[in-house]
Design goal:
Blueprint: H1 2-10, H2 18-27, E1 31-32, H3 33-40, H4 44-56, E2 60-64, E3 72-76, H5 78-82, H6 84-99, H7 104-120
Antiparallel strand pairs: 1-3, 2-3
Helix pairs in contact: 3-4
Pfam families: MarR
Protein name: MarR family transcriptional regulator
Organism: Paenibacillus albiflavus
Length: about 120
């Protein structure tokens, strides 16, 4: 599954994980690098490297905060915003493949179990 997922993302010139950063920015453009670390649960060097790569692809750019020049905010470019639909389609295809052959009532049970597991680890 992961290889299939990675292959589909590669068609968009993305790697696994970069789609999650873009997703965060689609929801909340203009966040700081520290906020990205918190929201994606990644270490600062990981975020820095990912941003550098996405900048080189022309998908994001960093800009100093207007009120605090020590802080950089991350914004999507037009090209980065245009990837929303293709990436979402990949996510939907992966979800459909994962749930193939699972009955609707089984999906509800699976969802309930996964929610419980998530609560258990908090």
């Amino acid at each position: 599954m992961r290889r299939n997922y990675a292959d589909m993302l590669r068609e968009l010139n993305l790697h696994v994980g970069q789609d999650q950063m873009l997703c965060r920015l689609w929801r909340e453009d203009g966040v700081t690098q520290n906020q990205l670390c918190e929201r994606l649960n990644c270490e600062p060097p990981t975020i820095t490297n990912m941003l550098r790569t996405l900048e080189s692809y022309g998908l994001v750019y960093r800009k100093k905060d207007d009120s605090d020049g020590r802080v950089s905010r991350v914004y999507l470019t037009t090209k980065g915003r245009e990837l929303y639909e293709p990436v979402e389609l990949i996510w939907k295809k992966q979800q459909e493949k994962l749930l193939e052959g699972i009955l609707p009532e089984e999906r509800l049970m699976l969802r309930r179990l996964m929610k419980q597991m998530a609560e258990n680890i908090i």
